[in-house]
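Hey everyone, long-time lurker, first post.

I ran two proteins through the pipeline my lab uses and got sequence/structure pairs for each. Pasting them in order. The first:
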Amino acid sequence: MANYYTDIPELKYHLNNPMMERICELKERNYRDKEEFDYAPQDYADTLDSFDKVLEITGEITGEIIAPNAEGVDEEGPHCANGRVEYASGTKQNLDAMVKAGLNGMTMPRRFGGLNFPITPYTMCAEIVSAADAGFGNIWSLQDCIETLYEFGNEDQHSRFIPRICAGATMSMDLTEPDAGSDLQSVMLKATFDEKENCWRLNGVKRFITNGDADLHLVLARSEEGTKDGRGLSMFIYDKEEGGVDVRRIENKLGIHGSPTCELVYKNAKAELCGNRKLGLIKYVMALMNGARLGIAAQSVGLSQAAYNEGLAYAKERKQFGKAIIEFPAVYDMLSIMKAKLDAGRALLYQTSRYVDIYKALDDIARERKLTPEERQEQKKYEKLADAFTPLAKGMNSEYANQNAYDCIQIHGGSGFMLEYACQRIYRDARITSIYEGTTQLQTVAAIRYVTNGSYLATIRDFEAIPCSPEMEPLKARLVEMANKLGACMNIVKEAQNQELLDFVARRLMEMAADCIMAHLLIQDATRAPEMFAKSAVVYLNYVEAEVEKHSSFIHSFNADELVNYRQ
């Protein structure tokens, strides 16, 4: 049977990145848990070995259980009866296997029953699972909502809720409403304090809630009567054991059929405040969404891998005109670009997750003691990088997942349009990735300030200073010219001092920056492991060089007066 970890050597390569030593040192607090927990690692090598073993177990479960169940789950889907959700039979088997293997609460401290893993190996597990069944990936990976509860909840909440997640309880984040999708400031689910019972009561409707009948929910609700903006919103914890929330229906979706997307009715549901009032949207949801966006980036990379695997296998087997279609340039061109996008997107995903790991670990240490000036500087550096890279990782990987799924079907030809081939499920599942947890357009809004303030360009210039192999030097020289074009386009738009123009070309600027960053990361990877990445580095550079030139030409020739022609 396939192992979705050991069969993809690129994953182990990213697990062994040099930054991981610092990450493990911070996360393990210099390996102090070894005195209290017999399964805690002794040192860095032991930590990596632990990651490797858990990833291998995840890959084995994915290959032997989740992947074989995927088509049945897609066909059966979850059911809704009497206000409750019942998962598809294959989903139940998947959850049972993951819980029995101890793969829940992975990032939580050992004192709560977690594995104390950094975000990076956990994100790899999310990618692995999503490569087999993206819908199940949603259900399982929503456990990372516990990160927000751990970060902002109190000790009593930690002790009551975190061990349940580590033991296998499911989670959801209840944000969206019928009239509040991307605009979460418009959330109107009402939270009122019950003086008699000394608790909060929630009333209203939530819509498009992934895994909406979960055991524990983080809920965004309006706690300040008379307010209409984000300053009146707070975050609440709802426990299904308390009752008061019914599933009105499960949405009938294009893809990710195994993941129940629910409309929820809150009827005087008992809840408790998480953190402080009024900070629900402006602080807690932002943290929650950043974690979720990294999760969708991982899901997207998993789908990209699945699309590439299906396309490659079919191209090798399918014969036309007397030979396998992979021998035709039109086909191997598509496959090479699919692989290059996969490798580039994965490099960006794990660069981002490592940035998140360092600043999150230092944040956690700061709850125990005061950070040194050097640690504080390190924390600020990586928080800024994580904030800048997260919208790129989510935006670009979700777009690449869609593109790879499209090309996978094209390689299959007419067979790809038939439901018995997995590529159509991958295609349908991929479509949501560029929509939920913030559309690509919203990722552009989050990223554009890092274009205009020069942060991305500064990072690219830092990458230019990193030595590479002689074989990669010509590619790197071309990348310098690409970065120069990005800088010139930035200057043109900034000098125009036209906000509408900036908003109009923001997607192009973001993609130019992301293209340069991912190409640099691939060159670094190809320098360290040419046998894995050298081909992709060449193919990707050729691909994005043309993309950057296309965007540059558009921005240089565009006249802001022409905007009137684009308004409908």
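...and the second, right after it:
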Amino acid sequence: MADAADLRGTTSARARRWLRRTAALLAAAPMIAGLTQIPAAPAAHAESKATGSRSVDVSITSLTPTAPKKSDTLTVSGTVTNDTKGTVSGAQVALRVGPTMNGRNAIDTAAHRTGYSEGLDGTEIGGKYAKKIGKLSAGASRDFSLSIPVDQLHLRENGVYQLGVSLTGGTSSQPWPQVLGIERTFLPWQSGPSTKKSQLTYLWPLISAVHVTARTDNDEDRTPIFRDDRLAEELAPGGRLQQMVTLGKNLPITWVIDPDLLATVDAMTKKYEVQNPSGNGTRAGSGQTVAKQWLDALQKAVDGKQVVALPFADPDLASLAHRGKNVTGALSHLQGATELASTTVETILGVRPHTDFAWPVDGAVDSSIVDVATSAGAHNVIARSDSLRETGGLSYTPTAARQIGGGNTAVVADARLSTAFTGDMSKAENSTLAIQRFLAQSQMVNLQAPDKQRSIVVAPQRTPTTSQAQAMAAALEGLSGQWTQPLGLGQAAKAKPDPNATQRVPSSRSYPRSLRARELPTDAFNKIQETEKTLDNFEPILTAKYRVVTPFGNAIRREMSTSWRSEARNAAGFRHDVQTYLSGLTKKVRLVPKTDMTLSGRSATVPVTVQNNLVQSVELRLVLRSQQGNRLAVSEPQLVNVEGGHSQSVKFGTTANANGPVWVSAQLYTPDGQPYGREMLFEVNVTEITSTVILVIAGGVLLLVLAGVRIYVQRKRAAAKSDEDGGDGEDAEKAHGQDEDDSEAPRTDRCDPAHALVPEQPSDPAPDTGSQSAGPSGSGEKVDH
């Protein structure tokens, strides 16, 4: 019992202590909660900065100078826009100078970072250098402009500085000052010229789409017909190509030109026609003036500059390597395009270009592309560093030139610099950021290894837009020779390669799928070769070959142009139009169809007519063949020369050996012995003696018979008359003998007219000899005298 009482007392005491502890904890809970929230406030504030920094959009639309000197004043302009649904109060815009970048990757990272980070985005330069905006309503925008002397930026060492523009303000839910928006860019700082400047080669491409068809008018000048008149817009003031020439003339660049563009513009300086959008008919082109002005400006711009000529029409090397090399004859076009490039540029611009460079699309290369590119004599292949990747773990960007075997050089363009202006540069914000990033990356290349002078190549997009070209030009002007110096592409290809740079060309499996998907298909090269074969067969018969061979040869080269990569349907249509038009021309020279004919007698002539509806003369060989030579033989083939717009009939001799129908074929051949056009068959019915001939012969025989009968009757009558007159036979014989002996006397009395005109035939009646017999006449015989 005592034990039980003690147990009950002990249990009760424990229960009371548990209750007191629980109550104390509950009473302390609010205080603990308050204590835990005290240090949490800054964390919440910091988090609001990170999320709130995207509440207001900050846009930098101008930064000058792009690479300032110590005595300059930096001016940054832009726009802030409140993207929230509430009002921003106490808004202020100010610059923030961050730390220097420690490498090219650090620049990329900073450019893609969003939100504000206090440790990375530097301190605000406030005071009089800040711009107070006050309240910024929801959805409202305000422009700003900040001007700060460069010496107030506290730029100490040479390098690339992160430069930010931030908007600080409060919101209704978080009224304290905080960064609500920030935009970053980069400020290259060089206190003095570099000891060893990077040698920079910037390619300035003059390339356009295909504008000329294979068609020409039938006039003496062979007036070209264009697909459209868009090129006139590009050449006009403010147009893309006009801006490229205007901007490029004062820049340290290497001109990279598609000779087809020059040939097209040169054709525009004269009369040309443009296809109507409906496809029916043409209209007069209107770009003669701008074409002349552009060519004149280009000739002046390239004077003294290095010019690289791509193969004519800028053939798609990757498509040839991956899809065309297995099509017989496809690669042969590359050699002709390279040869034509030099003569075209020299003729139009008056300068001798470099033609030993190949430029695959986006600088993407593999072993098959290199093989194709160098097969036509281009020993230098312009690649890009994101294709020919570094594998040696280099801490710096190596020299562009790389020896890749076979005496060939890969000129590796820097990928970051080459793609710096590929976006929409029509927006001031995009172009400003791109320019500053380009300058930052180019300076960082130099800072990577300042004791190594390296050759850096920039190969931008093939057809920059007007705004892209303007941004490119602004970036080159911003360099000002502080850490770079210009170098021509020819010299860059000859620079001493870095021994630690990769020289291995990737395999074809490494080629980007996105680029491979846009290549010309194998069928395109089959169609191209079909057109080439048609042209090869057409050329030998022409007397003015240049009227056809030149426009169609260029059209075939244009069918392989790189510009078709984004226009697969138009490319197929262009190939179809070229082949259709050429086939139509070949059919203008033909054999006129013959109907079946009949030959009378053992020998006769067969006429065959050749028609030429071209505007020039043609020369061919016409062959006539008998399908049964033992029954009908035909004379030898004949050469035919038919003037333009005329027809000519050619006669072949034949010899028949048997009667009956015989099939005869007529075939035109080129002078070098290739069949031209389709074979023409017709039937010849050989009849040695026809019904008409039989009637004529029968009539002749009947006349002979009648003449003989008449002579016989006349003689009988003469003999009978002699008997009636009483003349004896002796006297008659004597008289008859006297007539025969008198050889001098004319014998017209015995020459019957019918007998005299008809020659003697075996079937004629036997001569009547009765009057010449010495004996008496037979019983019942009557002799006419």
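Reply from user beta_strand_b:
Welcome! Quick read of the second one: Confidence is low (pLDDT under 50) at residues 1-51, 726-785. The first strand starts at residue 56 and ends at 64.
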